[in-house]
Amino acid sequence: MKKLITLLAFALSAFAMNAQDTLYFTPTGWWLNDNAVFMLGLANTDDTVYYRLEAVTGAQNLYYAELSSTEYNTIRFTRCGPGAEVISEWETGWNRTSNMDFDYSEGKHWKMNEAKDVLLKTDFTISNELPEIVLTKLLYFTPTGWWCDANAYFKVGLMNTESEPTGDEYFLDSVAGEPGTYYAELPSIDYDSIWFFRYDPAYKDSTPEKVWNQTTNMAFDYSEGNHWVMKEAKDGLIKTDFIIVGYGDPIGEAITIRFKQTAENTWDTVYIFSWEPETFGGWPGATSVKDADGWYTIEVPAGGLTVGHVIFSDGHGTGDGGYQFNADIVTHKTACYELSATAATEVDCDVAAIEELSKIDNVKIYPNPVTSTLTIDLKNIKSVNVVNIAGKRVMNANNSNVINVSNLSVGIYFLEILQANGVVQYSKFIKK
């Protein structure tokens, strides 16, 4: 997913330059067709990059691109038709400039003096002068667990410990279409400390407000990422309790979820589902084979779950007489859960063993899934151990590429293969 560190601009009375590597472009004359799309190309002897220039809100005829680098010596602009793609329509645009010498230190703003078909560098005024605007940055916050009270409201505090010892606070508003994620527009990112507050809504219009929970003061660097995602709900969170990414980027590492039904839950099959993204496919989602101890195992790729909620169900919607509930599970770490009929509760398990086994799969084996005989495509095998999902060795064999697993219960297993040269290899299989 495209990284979204968004640049907004609003018409105000003073100009403040916050985006160091932003380049601005002002067309003129008949280049100003309302439907036109403007492109920027930068090149040096080793590389060429292209950008689509976006309109700056609140400024007339001003476009911008945030540059990944300024280490280029050539620049050019193209005016294209609506819906143009940056690469495919670069050379087939309506109008274009010549390849012009580029030095970012000359100025960030390239302003056309006159509309022509092929412009030269002398047809531009290059400076740092822009219309009177303030550039703002967005900061995102995603709480989890009991911080996600539907009635709570949130604020972010930011402080520069040298120049602003009292700090500034901003309301965090809901992001449209992203339940549970909030944002604030920052007129400056010149801060070095950040904290978050969760407030009692009954006191929203009162003085003083009532703080339910808050984090510690944490080190702040906007370049680390603009989306602060809580790993787990606590009263005094510290920076290591957050995942910090660019908004829209995958959140978290690949994880493994194990779950087991309690006595009160008698679903024949347990499904797990997430709305966005649909990591487990369409409704009702997916489930793994249950092992001999009654545990189900689901492997989740990096960024494969949104924060907070997944749905456990018996495979039917409630309207069809089925059962389901939203589980507020921790979606950033490998963990085990017990399922009642209405909730998922985290329980202790050997997380380290599960994580280690989930990473390994470097030997070809077949068939997989298997019912009886499993073949290992590897030479000079000295011994083979079969390990269950809990990390316990349940079977072994010597000097053989073929092992009979028919007596194993259904579930997920791992092969620990020792070769004659002392190298240990691993692979995973499903017994059905």
Give a description of the structure.
By secondary structure, the chain is mainly β. The chain has 4 domains: 18-129, Immunoglobulin-like; 138-245, Sandwich (Immunoglobulin-like); 255-352, Sandwich (Immunoglobulin-like), CATH 2.60.40; 360-431, Immunoglobulin-like, CATH 2.60.40.3080. It has 1 helix and 34 strands. The chain has one helix at residues 351-358, and strands at 7-11, 22-26, 37-43, 48-55, 63-66, 74-80, 95-97, 100-101, 109-112, 118-119, 124-127, 133-142, 153-159, 168-174, 182-186, 193-199, 211-214, 218-219, 227-230, 242-245, 255-261, 271-273, 296-300, 309-313, 324-328, 335-339, 344-347, 365-366, 373-376, 381-388, 393-398, 402-404, 411-419, 424-431. Strands 1, 12, 13, 14, 15, 16, 17, 18, 19 and 20 form a 10-stranded mixed β-sheet that branches. Strands 2, 3, 4, 5, 6, 7, 8, 9, 10 and 11 form a 10-stranded mixed β-sheet that branches. Strand 30 and strand 31 form a beta hairpin. It is globular. The two termini are 36 Å apart. The model is unreliable at 1-19 (pLDDT under 50).
Task: Output the CATH class name of the largest domain.
Answer: Mainly Beta
Helix content: under 10%
Termini separation comes to 36 Å
Total beta strands: 34
CATH architecture of the largest domain: Sandwich
Largest sheet composition = 10 strands, mixed
Name the beta content range.
35-45%
CATH topology name of the largest domain: Immunoglobulin-like
Which oligomeric form is depicted? single chain
Compute the average pLDDT. Answer: 78
Class computed from helices, strands and strand pairing: mainly beta
Number of domains: 4
Any idea what the shape is? globular
Compute the gyration radius: what is it? 28 Å
The number of helical segments is 1
- Runs with pLDDT <50, length 5+? 1-19
